[in-house]
Each structure stands twice: as C-alpha cells, then as structure tokens.
Write a structure and sequence with these properties.
By secondary structure, the chain is mainly beta. Helix content is 13%, strand content 37%. It has one domain. The strands form 5 sheets. A 7-stranded mixed β-sheet has the order 10-9-16-5-4-19-21, with no helix packed on it. Strands 3, 6, 7, 11, 12 and 15 form a 6-stranded antiparallel β-sheet that branches. Strands 17-18-22-20 form a 4-stranded antiparallel β-sheet.
Length: 327
C-alpha cells in the first residue's frame, strides 16, 4: 500500500460539500490526502477572554465553537481570521485532494456566525511561484488559481508552446520532459487564502462564535497486507488496545477497513493569554466504527459520539475513523 510504482499526473475531484479525502504514503494510485484548515485567530485586547473551545467532527463536517467575552466596559472591535489550507499540485502525482468547492477564495466552504448571525468574510488570495506573487500573470493567461484539478489541467493543456516556455521560466509551471512530450503540464505555483472579518464584542457579554467547514480528509483502505502499517500508526493516534485488537482481528480474517483520516488545527485564537483546551466530539458514521485520537475519553469509545480533550502544548490533532469495508 505504501509503494508508488507508477508516477501519475496530479488529479482532483470537486464535490459540493462532500467529504474530502488525507495523508498517507503513496500507493498504486494518487493517495487521497488531507489538508489542515487554520484555527481561528483574533486580535489582541486586554479585556478579551476565551472562555471555551468546542470542536464537533463528523465525516464531511467540522464545527469549531468559541465562546468569547469582553470583560471591559467598552465595545471591542478586533480583526479575526481563518487561513485556508495551502494548495499545491503533487509534483509526482502521488497525492490528490477533494475540495468542497473550486472557489479559490474559500475551497472548504467555510462559514462563520457570531451570536447566531452570519458574518461577511473578506478574502485575501495570493498565488506564489518562486516566492513571488504571480496571481496577476496566472489570471492573465486565464488559468484557474487552484493549481490542480480537471479545469486547471484543461487550461494548461491549451497553452501554446511559447507561453509554456515563458511560464516555465517564471517558475509558474513545470515544463514537459523532452523525452515525454505528451505528459501533462503541472502547475508549480501554490495558492494561499486567508478569510478575515471584524469581530465586534459588546462590553460585559459572552459572544458565541461558530466556524464551520468541510474538511479536506484522507480516505484509504487497510487490508491484511497492511497490518504493519496499523502497528506503526497506533502510537501516533493513541489507539487503545481494545480498538487495536478489533482492527487487527478483522484484518487477519481477510476483511478490510475503510479509513477516514483528518488533522485539525487546535491552537488557541489568542496568543497573548491562556486559552482553554479544545473539547472534541467525534461522531461515528456507524455503530461499529472505531475512532482514535490522542486525548480520547476511553469511557466514550463505544458510544455514538466519542469525546476527548486535546493535549496541552500541541497545535494539531490527528483523528482517524475506521469503518468495516464492504466485501
């Protein structure tokens, strides 16, 4: 499962608000890989308190709920932002990503509400090649800003040879190998987007802030030949002996597991004060699913919703959901 024997061109599918697919080593086809959406960040103020952080996770949906409070006697107006995952084509075709949208400003369908009211988001988007912002040049050539996918592949294939040479010299695309003139062109730029807004906090009041999006999640299968892979990943996701035994038993019997694999940013929104540890709630897609992440409350492992608290001094948490694969 972890040996890539054939190099393939980067590929992506766009699905409307569907579960995205994460990070594992290359296989015989492009690995559906995960990307991390940034956690909420907010400007500083002496009267700002972060009273709670809850993260609800389901396959195809992540909801961050923050409880913010202005302890002062004057209204606060603070800049808040969420960073989109950096998008870049797989140079050797070993990875692919499924996004909720082909909108370069907001590829994960992120939405924010404050005290129950929708927030208007402002996007700042940059396409970088060789460290330089090449957004204008990419748009001029009528290339999509997202550097992979069917739409981008089609646009790259339509470029005339002189344009290909010019864009390759700028580091915007990778030129074809002269020995393989029919190989598809690959975008060499990366896309960065940050969504921001001004958050108003009335004096002396709690303000619930909710950030919801479709995660870019990994999806793959574990079969009998992957027993060693399971053993090597158990410590990273703090897989408990009972869950490990159930996974191994099915694999040894010749059956398989379907795996959803995602990583979440869990750093606090305010860097100058103490933030409470995020509380995690992970919904099982079916009763016999197994959920694993570091910080799990093992008393809830058999329930429909598995609870836990993220570890201190960590900015990310990896969550893996195993479901029995169809025979």
């Amino acid at each position: 499962m972890r040996n890539l024997v054939t190099l393939m061109a980067a590929f992506i599918s766009f699905l409307p608000a569907a579960p995205a697919l994460a990070q594992k080593a290359p296989v015989s086809k492009p690995e559906q890989s995960s990307l991390v959406v940034g956690a909420l960040q907010i400007g500083s103020a002496a009267d700002l308190e972060v009273e709670g952080i809850d993260i609800d996770v389901a396959i195809g949906s992540v909801v961050y709920s923050y409880l913010l409070k202005n302890t002062g006697d004057r209204e606060l107006k603070l800049t808040a932002s969420v960073s989109m995952p950096e998008l870049q084509a797989s140079a050797d075709g070993s990875h692919t990503w499924v996004l909720a949208s082909n909108n370069p400003e907001n590829p994960v369908g992120l939405a924010v509400t404050a005290a129950g009211e929708p927030v208007t988001l402002k996007a700042e988007v940059h396409a970088y090649a060789l460290g330089l912002d090449r957004s204008t040049g990419i748009k001029t050539e009528r290339l999509p800003l997202i550097p992979f996918g069917a739409e981008t592949d089609k646009a790259l294939a339509a470029l005339p040879p002189d344009t290909v040479s010019r864009l390759a010299a700028l580091g915007i695309i990778s030129p074809r190998d002269p020995d393989q003139p029919k190989e598809p062109l690959i975008a060499d730029w990366s896309l960065d987007s940050v969504l921001s807004w001004q958050q108003v906090l009335p004096p002396g009041k709690d303000v619930p802030l909710v950030v919801k999006f479709t995660p870019v999640t990994g999806e793959y299968r574990l079969a009998q030949a992957d027993l060693n892979d399971l053993d090597s990943m158990k410590d990273e996701i703090c897989l408990q002996p009972e869950g490990l035994g159930a996974l191994q038993s099915r694999l040894k019997a010749g059956d398989a597991w379907k795996v959803f694999d995602l990583t979440l940013a869990v750093d606090g929104p305010a860097h100058w004060i103490d933030n409470p540890l995020p509380v995690l709630s992970v919904q099982k897609p079916q009763a016999d699913a197994i959920v694993a992440f570091c910080g799990t409350d093992n008393r809830t492992s058999g329930r429909a919703t598995v609870l836990g608290v993220t570890r201190d001094n960590t900015d990310e948490v990896r969550i893996v959901i195993f479901t029995p694969a169809a025979k």
